[in-house]
Amino acid sequence: MNNFFASRKGIITTGIVIGILAPVLQYLGNPKNMGICVACFERDIAGALGLHRAAVVQYLRPEIIGVVLGAMVVALLGREFRARGGSSPLIRFFLGVFAMIGALVFLGCPWRALLRLAGGDWNAVLGLIGLAGGIYIGSLFLKRGYTLHRSQVYPAKAAGFVMPGLMLGLLFLVAFEISFGEGLPLFFSTQGPGAARAPLFISLIAGLAFGALAQRSRFCTMGSLRDLFISRDLHLFYGVAALVLTAFAVNLVLGQFSPGFSGQPIAHNLHVWNVLGMVLAGLAFCLAGGCPGRQLILAGEGDGDAGVFVLGMVVGAAFSHNFAMASSPAGVGAFGPWGVGVGLVFCLTIGWVMVEKRRTPA
To answer: Where are the transmembrane segments (predicted)?
Structure first.
């Protein structure tokens, strides 16, 4: 089984399954062109916990919980679960913050950009161009010797269960719709994207499938472009292509394909910021070593550094909405361009200063 998922057929199978389940989740109630979006769903989780008060984007998304738990289960079964961390955690936290700011200027993570394209949203083409540009810049730093240094294996295996434990806690809260008092969390949207949701159990099962398959196959949208730029390796790219083609076919069958630039759900057509938002996100993903979906998978495997990046994204979502940086269908937030600018300066600086000089033989 391990050999299968390490093969081309395995990565294509993962892309096909995600390409089927994501549009089906949309059909069953998730937001349009957003069957699964790690950035948007982590933003909803931040809102549900009261970290921001944008009332239309608040819900503890079971898909995110399922991805982490699914990855944890198969990593344990495959003896790949290792508690580890200590690889520049504070840098990774702020990379997560700025990755989220960039993603919310565009309105989607790489997974959603692909699903938006498969649904006919041509604005996604601009986002994907920006994503590729950011990853290309990051790959140049990697070629020069960029590193956040190796993580260390923790003596106590239990340290790797912190993020899965957090997800189990969130699952308990959403399953029983816990309230901590009037005007206090949990907050669940009654209108807008946060109120559009598939049934909890189905969403959780889909998330578990995403996490399990992506952990086995090492599926990563950022990695597919990074490998293409650095080594011309197309292995991960086959999975991404399979996702887009499958989601396109399923959207046609379900009547969810609507091509065009204008009037697309939860999207804007300010092309410059669609590109630049994803340049920032792609660069941050590349410097951190994985797209947001891959970071969830790694966190499920016991990687504390990936968990720090995930928490950075959640905090970045709160910053985006609390400081008027997040976009909406009406356009980019008033301070979104400032967030992108500061984020690019931060990421380019980190990429430059974290290059480890190669020693030349005496």
So the answer is: 12-29, 59-78, 90-113, 125-142, 154-176, 196-214, 235-258, 270-292, 304-323, 335-355
Range of the domain at 161: 2-353
| Predicted confidence (pLDDT) per residue in 67-117, tens digit | 999 999 999 999 999 999 999 999 999 999 999 999 999 999 999 999 999
Distances from the Cα of 50 to the Cα of 37, 93, 142, 318, 324, angstroms: 20, 20, 37, 9, 16
DSSP string, 21-88: HHHHHHHTTSPTT-S--HHHHHHHHHHHTTS---TTS----HHHHHHHHHHHHHHHHTT----EE-SS
**Alpha helices, DSSP H, located in 184-291:** 200-217, 221-231, 235-254, 271-288
pLDDT at 128: 98
Q: Which residues of 10-40 are buried (b: 16+ CB within 10 A; e: fewer)?
A: bbbbbbbbbbbbbbbbbbeebbbbbbbbbbb
Q: What is the pLDDT of residue 147?
A: 96
Q: Alpha-carbon distance 292 to 141, whole Å?
A: 20
| 20 three-class SS | helix
Please state the pTM of the whole predicted model.
0.96
Report the alpha-carbon distance of residue 338 to residue 344 in Å, rounded.
Answer: 10
**pLDDT at 358 (0 to 100):** 60
- Which residues in the chain show pLDDT less than 50? 360, 362
On whether residue 198 sits in a domain, the answer given is yes
Phi, psi dihedral angles at 116 (to 5 degrees): -65, -40
Any domain includes 274: yes
Q: Which residue has the tokens 């292995």?
A: 235
Q: How far is CA 180 from CA 187, 196, 253, in A?
A: 10, 23, 43
Identity of the amino acid at 279: V
Q: Is residue 29 part of a domain?
A: yes
Q: Give the chain's domain count.
A: 1
Residues in the chain: 362
Q: Does residue 89 belong to any structural domain of this protein?
A: yes
